[in-house]
Amino acid sequence: MPNLIVFTDLDGTLLDHSNYSYVSAKPALIALKELQIPLILASSKTSVEINSLREEIGFSDCPAIVENGAGLLAPGQTSFETQDASDYTRLTQIIANAPEKLRQFYKGFNDWSIEELVEITGLPRESAFNAAKRQFSEPGLWTGTDEMKEAFSEYLSQNGVSYRHGGRFMTLSFGATKGQRIEEICLRYTKPDKQIISLSLGDAPNDVEMLLATDYGVIISNEHSVGIPELPEESNGKIIRTTKTGPAGWNDAVLDFISKHSGSNPQIKNTPKTESEKDIG
């Protein structure tokens, strides 16, 4: 059996866009665990958020990509030891110094209270509090015109800041991406006598680099996302799209990947929800 590895976005992909549940993905999660296939969470979420989910689904022994690739959480690591937020402080200062005619159209996590984050994200209060513990990147919403956004993008670029669109937010950072972390992680799992076959799954433009960096990619259908335009790699089957949305589409795609490349045909099992899953649907 080849050395399989799976990378996944979270919101709108493994997690339902509306209620953050992964219930529909449980059969594939169980199959990955039983076959000891690493599952690498890759998201714009903070280290605290990702570690909590990584523990809950049983993949704490795997690294995780946080804040869109700006940070890499090691296996078993719960957060970044120093909790250094100097990059985030510098980033929010650059945003604050933008010309007011541009700044007024971008509101990020640093601009919102916890109550506003709860309302905007739909997260429980504790989860919203963890989402605000940022160290490298700033998600937010743009409400101006496309022309004004281009001007804002130019200002950001002049200051070393780039942005990516996810399923919900326009996230600003100093340029690291999920895709840049994939080679680094795959090297950790390389074995002399086994070929690595990698899969990535995502639903939004900030996932494109990740989808292109793995052997196979799956674009998860998400009617709430701005979506991913057709990619050249779809013509040869390297990248495919699901018809089902969120965790249901994720589940089918991962089980199909396992079946094709592991020689195993995972059996779908009905398992009870955890307490946290009951809370979020």
UniProtKB/TrEMBL annotation:
SUPFAM superfamilies: HAD-like. GO terms for biological process: mannosylglycerate biosynthetic process. Residues 261-281 are annotated as: Disordered. InterPro entries: HAD-like_sf, HAD-SF-IIB-MPGP, HAD-SF_hydro_IIB, HAD_sf. Signal peptide: none annotated. It comes from the Bacteria. This is Mannosyl-3-phosphoglycerate phosphatase family. Keywords: Hydrolase, Magnesium, Metal-binding. Residues 261-271 have a biased composition (Polar residues). One of its GO terms (molecular function) is mannosyl-3-phosphoglycerate phosphatase activity. Pfam families: Hydrolase_3 (PF08282). GO terms for cellular component: cytosol. Residues 272-281 have a biased composition (Basic and acidic residues).
